[in-house]
Design brief:
heterodimer, A: about 775 residues, mainly beta, Immunoglobulin-like, Maltoporin, Chain A, 22-stranded antiparallel β-barrel, five-stranded mixed sheet, about 5% helix, about 55% strand, B: about 300 residues, 13-stranded mixed sheet, three-stranded antiparallel sheet, 18 strands
């Protein structure tokens, strides 16, 4: 196999690249205190103008010209730069342990190094600084990575009460959320108030919105790559926290004298117990969620590492609220991943994974006198192998394969509530299961053509098999970078993506009433073509980052329900779908301050997204349900003193569109059951809700204490969600007064100001 | 002092918990003023020819959704030229007034004087403000026959759980049909609408006749041609044990049936937040409405058992 790959490389790359005598430095970059891998650290040899960054496992490989001496500079935000001098260097393994810079917030730590946002070909990608996340306002004491993702340019949350996030005009199903390579189908706990990710257990979170490298596929709009921490390899430690509605505990420590480590992290709410005394006896409002993360890693010598990680999270809620809304919902994700890293040699790194993941959602909703029952279940078994070959300073190759076996169980039914009030149950065994397989092959080359120009060229070939239907597609991926100077660059990318799974949304519903289905004979895969350009600039030794990106995205085979579709338990969902196109264009502005007492960012997105379905809206294009012209987020954290930090984030969205009739028509002929007044809809999504905006603030107090002869870091976080208590629109519906026969529009708001406090200790 | 500090911390904690828990139970729902979008009213024309009866045509103007114009008198369009013609007759319909005894209001329509004949093709022409709206229909639906009528106290369908009058019939073979159940009976002001509990306010103990038309349309798409069909219809008005109804079955041309079917689906969609909105389409170009025909079966008497 390796020989074949070498042969392939010989064909593709200049002989000079392969035959040149070079010194290869490779190894891992980790945190000196915990041994945790530092993903995305820069490893550079300034004298030769070359560099690379560590991969998701902290591994790097760098080929350089032989010389009498070399100085290797290793840098990572929040850590002291590491300078290592090598005399008459030979190819060798060099592992780096980096010291955290305790005064990172007050001093500039990155100097004279190019950051990946300037020097890399990858555009439309943002790594979220986990340190800043820990100071941001929290809701009910829960830090949330997805809330932070929603403040990035090109990204927006749904309205309060819906889960998911929306990237560059795509639906929430078009985001591939990966937790240690395992897809998480619903990354939110109920209401979207909390994500399923416990920040205590996370190492890195990276969002890619465009210019997708070929190793990623399966979704149209974004990849959210979440990497769990490996655990402290040096000593046993932990974190414990208590919030208003939940508590969390994280334990981690070394295994076999530093050969491995473990981390276990869990959260559980106790809102069910707190609410009970305040609710009337008949009110069934109840809410419980939990999530549990665990990871073990172990090194078998210098060449092999094994990672086993697992995650499970579940929500169970009953809500008896305002007159129009009652529901019961149970949903959860579970994933298990076994990954094996193997170093064939200093240049060839392989990660092979076996994954199992499961998602199920069961929802029974009563709203405005109607009942909706939904069940969606997915079980995936996956195998993937990713190969990274650091061929030369000019070429880094990635290739690999993925195989996934899906099993889907979708059901949706809606009906009027029976007079008896008893809602019929549906047996899960009766749901028709859909089986499908997905496979993909990919190859990608990162090619530094010259000091100024770099290219990333890739091709992915996904295929999908369901019953007798087969889809095979080709996805070219091209990204290019032109360096204007050491601190600014211009980038462009073109990517084609396919998606074989569809989440069928219901535009009028206000709850997560979405169903996952697979492509098949009647449902073609979703496709997107995205072109993006951008200008990137860093200044003041990378203290500030600026970027402006523009994109055009065209999507095909978007799915919605037919007009008036009312599914019953015997309905075939696929027969009730219509297919159309989506168009999204946008401009994204991003300014971020990385270091100093004040850190944070401002992001603004100007965008327009429309959809066109031949069988909806008389074939005329209409605004996408999450089309929002303006989207502004200001996120900041300011260190008042070593003990006190204040942080806040302000969010502003244009109101989302919804459909209201513009006219009414009297139909006397034969109408006795209703009031003979019908609606004249002129266009779909013709109205917009009021603008959405809110400000969240937090105040963090840190103090070190001595408990049981041990130093313990303690932290109080006082925060307020929606501090000025704006009643943002949740959904709007119309009703007709049967006595006056006069239609009225009613707006429902959900979350007023919500103060919270949490207490966290680290030992 | 330290003890007091702890008590304060604990009290503070409980106060905040209580506050948040109460907030969680709060939902805010309010009427809102929606910015009215410009709306150009359209004519609404409905005319269903019935073999053996004189033509009746309803003509109204659609209006803004939040407009206060809601009564038939507000919306009726007088002064239009309405012609229903066939190879045998040319009927010029004239404005006529009726009475909706349940809603206690007058109704307005155009009515002709020649009975509709089976087998003829009719053309409708409505001329109003310089525009003419035309459509044709051939009265070819064959008279259906009800086999039996029964009753079920609790029946579940997409409309929920309700009582129902069960009508059994055999589909007419060799023809594409759509069926709808019609019932006629006498009620007084104690009767209420089953959907909304609305009661008539102007008739006291006096009885008046109401027509109840089943909302769903049952299509024979050809594959089940000639099959036996059983449909369950929810009564529009409440009844007592022993109430007597005349039950008819309408056989309707499929084009008109699609219009009534979408009306039904729209109502379901409007009140059900889980359903996509339904845009109305018309089989008369340039307006909202329907022109078609149906034929009634012979009536079958039905007595409510409870």
């Amino acid at each position: 196999m390796i020989k074949h790959l070498y042969f392939f490389c010989l064909l593709v790359f200049p002989l000079s690249d392969l035959m040149s005598q070079s010194v290869v430095l490779s190894g891992y970059v980790s945190d000196a205190k915990t041994g945790e891998a530092l993903i995305g650290s820069a490893v550079q040899i300034a004298s030769q103008g070359i560099g690379t960054t560590t991969n998701n496992f902290g591994f790097y490989s760098l080929s350089c010209r032989p010389s009498d001496s070399l100085v290797v500079v290793v840098s990572y935000v929040g850590y002291n730069n590491l300078l290592v001098s090598l005399k008459r260097p030979k190819s060798q393994r060099l592992d780096f342990s980096m010291e955290e810079n305790s005064t990172e917030l007050t001093e500039v730590t990155i100097r004279e190094n190019q950051k990946d946002n300037i020097s890399g070909t990858q555009m439309s990608a943002i790594s979220i600084p986990m340190r800043l996340v820990k100071t941001l306002p929290v809701l009910f004491g829960e830090r949330d990575i997805l809330k932070t993702v929603q403040t990035l340019p090109g990204v927006q949350g749904g309205q309060e009460g819906t889960t998911g996030f929306y990237v560059r005009g795509g639906n929430s199903d078009q985001n591939l959320v990966l937790l240690d390579d395992a897809p998480v189908y619903n990354p939110n706990h109920l209401f979207g108030l909390f994500s399923t990710f416990n920040t205590n257990s996370l190492n890195q979170v990276k969002l890619i919105k465009g210019g997708f490298p070929a190793q990623y596929g399966g979704r149209l709009s974004s990849i959210l790559d979440v990497t769990m921490r490996e655990g402290n390899k040096k000593k046993f430690s932990g974190q414990a926290g208590i919030g208003l509605i939940s508590s969390n505990l994280t334990l981690e420590g070394p295994l076999s004298k530093g050969k491995g480590s473990f981390i276990v992290s869990g959260r559980r709410t106790y809102l069910d117990l707190l609410l009970k005394p305040f609710l009337p006896k008949k009110n069934q409002t109840n809410y419980v969620f939990y999530d549990l993360n665990a990871k073990i890693n172990y090194s078998f010598g210098h060449k092999d590492k094994l990672f086993i990680s697992a995650f499970t999270g579940n929500d169970d809620a009953q809500y008896t609220g305002v007159n129009s809304l009652n529901y019961g919902i149970t949903f959860g994700n579970s994933t298990a991943t076994v990954r094996w890293n193997h170093l064939f040699n200093q240049k060839l790194f392989v990660n092979t994974s076996v994954l199992i993941n499961k998602y199920q959602l069961s929802l029974s909703t009563l709203q405005s006198g109607y009942n909706s029952q939904i069940y969606t279940g997915i079980r995936d078994y996956s195998f993937k192998s990713d190969w990274e070959y650091y061929l030369s300073p000019k070429h880094t190759m990635h290739w690999g394969a993925t195989l996934i076996r899906h099993a889907f169980s979708p059901l949706s039914a809606s009906s009027k509530i029976p007079k008896s009030g008893k809602i019929p149950a549906f047996p899960l065994d009766s749901i028709h299961r859909q089986n499908a397989s997905e496979a993909a092959l990919y190859v990608n080359d990162d090619w530094n053509i010259s000091k100024r120009i770099a290219l990333s060229v890739g091709l992915r070939m996904p295929s999908f098999f369901r019953s007798t239907t087969t889809y095979v597609r080709l996805e070219p991926r091209v990204s290019a970078r032109y360096s204007i100077s050491e601190h600014s660059s211009f980038k462009a990318s073109f990517t084609v993506m396919n998606q074989f799974l569809h989440l069928v949304p219901n535009s009028t519903a206000s709850l997560p009433t979405d169903i996952w289905i697979a492509s098949g004979a009647a449902i073609a895969p979703q496709t997107s073509r995205q072109f993006a350009i951008g200008w990137f600039k860093n200044s003041n030794d990378n203290m500030y980052e600026f970027s402006i990106e523009g994109y055009i995205k065209k999507m095909e085979n978007q799915v919605l329900f037919k007009e008036g579709t009312q599914l019953s338990t015997s309905s075939d969902i696929e027969q009730n779908l219509v297919f159309g196109k989506g168009n999204s264009t946008g401009l994204e502005f991003y300014a971020r301050k990385n270091t100093g007492r004040l850190t944070g960012w401002v992001s603004y997105t100007l965008s327009k997204t429309t959809q066109q379905f031949d069988k909806l809206n008389k074939g005329i294009a209409f605004p996408f349900s999450y089309d929002r012209r303006h989207n502004l987020a200001v996120v900041g954290s300011y260190e008042l003193s070593p003990k006190w930090t204040v942080a806040g984030n302000f969010t502003f969205y244009t109101g989302r569109p919804y459909t209201l009739p513009v006219g009414k028509v009297q139909v006397d002929e034969g109408s006795s059951l209703y009031n003979s007044i019908y609606s004249d809809y002129t266009t779909r999504n013709n109205y917009r809700m009021r603008v959405y905006h809110r400000l969240d603030v937090s105040l963090t107090y840190k103090k070190q204490k001595n408990w049981f002869k041990r130093k313990i870091d303690t932290e109080w976080v006082f925060s307020a969600y929606n501090i000025y208590s704006r009643l943002n629109p949740y959904f709007v519906y119309t009703t007709t007064d049967d006595f006056t026969r006069q239609p009225v529009a009613r707006e429902v708001s959900l979350l007023p100001i919500i103060p919270s406090v949490s207490y966290q200790i680290t030992f | 002092m330290k003890k007091n500090k702890n008590v304060f911390k604990r009290s503070f904690f409980y106060v905040v918990i209580s506050f948040v828990a109460i907030l969680m139970c709060i939902g805010c729902e309010k009427n809102i003023n929606v910015k009215i979008q410009p709306y150009q009213g359209m004519l609404s024309i409905q005319c269903m020819l019935v073999a053996g009866e004189v033509p009746r045509l309803y003509l109204s103007q659609s209006t803004g959704f939040f407009s206060s114009q809601i009564t038939p008198a507000d919306l009726f369009v007088p002064g239009a030229r309405v012609i229903i013609s066939s190879p045998e007759t040319r009927d010029s319909l004239i404005t006529t007034m009726g009475r909706d005894s349940f809603y206690c209001q007058d109704t307005y329509f155009y009515q002709g004087k020649f009975q509709v004949k089976q087998g003829l093709t009719y053309t409708m022409e409505v001329s109003y403000e310089g525009k003419t709206y035309r459509s044709t229909t051939t009265v070819n639906q064959l008279k259906p026959k009800i086999d039996q009528v029964g009753y079920i106290s609790a029946f579940k369908d997409i409309y929920g759980e309700h009582e129902g009058v069960v009508v059994g019939f055999t589909d007419t073979p060799g023809q594409v049909n759509a069926y709808r159940v019609e019932m006629s009976r006498q009620i007084d002001s104690s009767a209420r609408k089953t959907e909304t509990a609305y009661k008539s306010e102007c008739n006291g103990a006096h009885f008046f006749t109401v027509k109840e038309v089943g909302r769903a349309i049952y299509f024979d798409t050809g594959s089940g041609d000639g099959r036996q069909v059983s449909v369950t219809v929810e009564p529009t008005y409440s009844h007592r044990k022993g109430s007597i109804a005349q039950v008819y079955l309408q056989a309707m041309d499929p084009s008109s049936a699609r219009f009534f079917d979408q009306l039904d689906k729209q109502k379901l969609a409007t009140s059900n937040p889980f359903v996509e909105p339904v845009f109305l389409t018309s089989n008369i170009e340039g307006c909202i409405g329907v022109f078609g025909h149906y034929i009634r079966s012979k009536p079958v008497q039905f007595i409510y058992p409870e």
